[in-house]
Automatic annotation (TrEMBL):
Location(s), subcellular: Cell membrane
UniProt cross-references to InterPro entries, sorted A to Z: ABC-4_Integral_Memb_Prot (IPR052536), ABC3_permease_C (IPR003838), ABC_permease_BceB-typ (IPR027022)
Keyword Cell membrane: yes
Membrane topology note: Multi-pass membrane protein
Source organism of the structure: Anaerobacterium chartisolvens
A Gene Ontology biological process term: transmembrane transport
Protein name: Putative ABC transport system permease protein
Entry keyword Transmembrane helix: yes
GO cellular component assignments: plasma membrane
Transmembrane segments: 21-43, 55-77, 120-141, 153-176, 197-217, 229-254, 287-309, 554-579, 613-636, 642-668
Length: 682
């Protein structure tokens, strides 16, 4: 062989087939640069000094794993389109005298040139746009704590290894396609369609049953815990059902139209149905992939956007008040030990950080939990367990706090006077009407059920799934705790008898000043309040300001990662649509020429083309939008598990995402359709 012949042939092949390989290179560049950007952010520790930085890094690392799986799968899938278009060319080489090993060398040279250029451009764009992506991340998480973007050598190495592995896999696949096929098969390879679909009727029926089951599960989901358990089974059912319906259901429908002689034996319908029968059989796999990718884009973007834009509502639900500090004491049941020193610390730090105390109150309580289902109270047994199913436990769980009338009167300004077995119930949830409670054989009279008190309605929101029980005094509170949870009230369990002293503070001031104040107070209040006391117990501290920073980091990180996944899914969707247009253009050209030769006018042929193309390429979009519409209720319930109860916001995000995606899909269709029409033009 002439020296350098294979290299020259490979270069000539790439130039001649640039219409297919340029989009492939662009997609590879996009995916490799995105992968490099994310892994560089993780490896360079650029976000480690942010609030919630380690968790964000963990999310990005998990995203990289998922992204790697999708990237490998779809690079192999897209490569199959390319090699199918090239089989006739490789068969021609065999006819001209080249052996399969010679064709293999050409493929190796093509792969080396193509993939080296793709990786080089991927690294270039990754470096150029990496800093922009990092600045965007800081903007999304609403913080910039002197973070500096740096390039990590490990990011170059890992990205190169991953994509080199993908390129090796695609090259091996291509070589095997040539090695295992006969020259005659290679010459007709691009015309080879999908295998005949078998079991059309049972597959269609099963697909419809699975899809209806998944839709029913989604539409009827009412409780977040149930939605979390059922989400992935429903997703799997939808994926399987979609494959069955695109593979067999479309053929079943077209066969039904074909059997309708009054409809089928009309010139326009005859050509359209016959053409669709061939196209749907041949392209079911590609259309199914476009549909699933489109659904992934819609669900990912709408969910991430709803969480990000609804995070203030989530914070208000999780933090009814600005700051809540709870200290448990083993003894010393007095009204907040060292209260004067604690108040001095609270006021001094407020002046130091330039914030004002809007309101503050303290109370002591005993805490536990129970189940309230349809107004029925279910308490713990002697082992500290509640005998209900997992779903009931998750869906009807209530935190219960037992306090005294002295604490209640001090906080609310009321003058309640309760008997030894008389109770007040404080809650903003609907727990039904109760005149008495019988617990472990002991009956208590319920004097009143009250909502809207400071105990359950804070500055920012009401406390859902919370129940405060007011007893007459400490002794009555301890007795009530012993019957609500016998294991906590046992004589050997001193911890179960310990009161928790809670301080609730609401602030006025700049968010950053309030956050700094909250951090300083968390470090100093405990030591001030417990100075000289033998507490022997725990300490909990929660505030909305540092939680807001953490929320920005977590939901901002999700939105950032969701944007990258969206780009990944869109890139693959666009590429599949493009290659399908190209592949079908070459396959359809001869058929449309024959139609014209047998007497069809240009307008009739063009009308047939338009009808088939519109159905083929808008069927996945319509199905994806139907999937998302059916999944809307489940998405709302899933987000409620994150404490986002604004279903209207979620619907707006789903609707806006669907409209934008549909417009983008139409644009991509119009752009790729031009390539198709150029090929079939006669």
């Amino acid at each position: 062989m002439v020296k350098g012949l294979f290299r020259k042939l490979a270069r000539a092949n790439l130039v001649r087939n640039k219409g297919m390989y340029i989009p492939y290179v662009i997609a590879t560049v996009i995916m490799s640069s995105m992968y490099f950007i994310i892994i560089n952010i993780v490896f360079s520790k650029s976000i480690s000094n942010m609030s919630f930085g380690p968790t964000m890094q963990a999310m990005l690392t998990f995203g990289l794993v998922v992204m790697s799986l999708f990237t490998i799968a779809y690079m192999l899938y897209i490569n199959s389109f390319l090699i199918k278009r090239r089989k006739q060319e490789f068969g021609l080489y065999a006819v001209l005298g080249l052996e399969k090993r010679h064709v293999g060398k050409i493929i190796l040279w093509e792969s080396a040139m193509l993939n080296t250029a793709s990786m080089a451009l991927g690294f270039l764009f990754g470096v150029v746009f990496g800093k922009l992506a990092f600045v965007l991340l800081l903007k999304i998480v609403k913080t910039a704590p002197n973070s500096k973007y740096v390039l990590s050598p490990s990011a170059f190495v890992v990205t190169a290894v991953i994509f080199a592995g993908i390129f090796v896999l695609t090259t091996i696949y291509n070589l095997n396609q040539v090695r295992l096929a006969k020259p005659v098969e290679l010459l007709s390879g691009k015309r080879k369609g999908e295998k005949k679909v078998r079991g059309v009727v049972p597959l269609t029926i099963i697909g419809l049953i699975l899809l209806c089951t998944a839709y029913t599960v989604s539409i009827t989901a009412k409780i977040p815990a149930s939605a979390l358990l059922l989400f992935w089974p429903a997703v799997i059912l939808v994926i399987i059902a979609t494959w069955m319906l695109f593979t067999a259901g479309s053929v079943f429908l077209l066969r039904a139209l074909k059997r309708n002689k009054g409809y089928y034996y009309k010139p326009g319908n005859f050509i359209a149905v016959s053409g669709l029968m061939h196209r749907l059989k041949q392209n079911a796999s590609g259309l199914y992939n476009i549909c699933i990718l489109s659904t992934m884009v819609l669900v990912t973007v709408s969910g991430c956007c709803a969480l990000y834009f609804g995070q203030e509502e989530i914070l208000s639900v999780q933090n009814p008040n600005d700051l809540v500090i709870s200290i448990n004491y083993n003894k010393n049941y007095a009204k907040f030990p060292n209260a004067d020193k604690a108040r001095e610390t609270i006021d001094a730090l407020a002046r130091e950080h330039g914030v004002a105390i809007e309101s503050m109150y303290t109370y002591k309580s005993l805490s536990d939990n129970l189940i309230i289902k349809n107004g029925e109270f279910i308490f713990k047994n002697k082992n500290g367990d509640i005998s209900v199913g997992t779903e009931d436990y998750n869906d009807n769980y209530f935190y219960v706090y037992i306090t005294t009338q002295e604490e209640y009167n001090a906080v609310t300004g009321e003058k309640e006077d309760l008997g030894s077995h008389e109770l007040l119930l404080l809650t903003d949830d609907d727990i039904g009407s109760h005149s008495q409670l019988t617990i472990q054989g002991t009956t208590y009279a319920v004097k009143e059920i009250i909502s809207g008190t400071k105990f359950t309605a804070g500055k920012n929101s009401v406390s859902k799934t919370r129940l405060f029980i007011v007893a007459s005094d400490d002794a009555a509170a301890l007795e009530l705790r012993a019957v609500i949870n016998p294991s906590a009230g046992s004589s050997s369990n001193d911890r179960g008898k310990c009161f928790s002293f809670t301080t609730v503070i609401n602030l006025k001031g700049d968010n950053s000043d309030c956050a700094a104040y909250s951090v300083a107070l968390s470090k100093q209040l405990y030591s001030a309040a417990t100075d000289g006391l033998d507490t022997g117990m725990g300490y909990s501290y929660r505030n909305i300001f540092t939680n807001r920073q953490q929320s920005n980091g977590m939901f901002g990180g999700l939105l950032f990662l969701g944007a990258f996944f969206t780009i990944l899914f869109l890139t693959n969707t666009i590429l599949i649509i493009y290659f399908k247009q190209i592949s079908e253009g070459f396959d359809d050209r001869d058929r449309f020429v024959i139609m014209q030769k047998v007497g069809m006018s240009d307008d009739e042929v063009k009308s047939t083309i338009n009808k088939q193309i519109l159905i083929i390429f808008f069927l996945p979009l319509a199905t994806a939008l139907l999937h998302v519409a059916a999944a809307g209720n489940m998405i709302i319930r899933l987000l409620e598990a994150f404490a986002l109860f604004n279903g209207g916001l979620t619907i707006v995000c789903i609707s806006a995402t669907s409209v934008v995606f549909a417009l983008a899909y139409i644009f991509v269709y119009r752009f790729t359709a031009k390539a198709y029409y150029r090929i079939v033009r006669w």
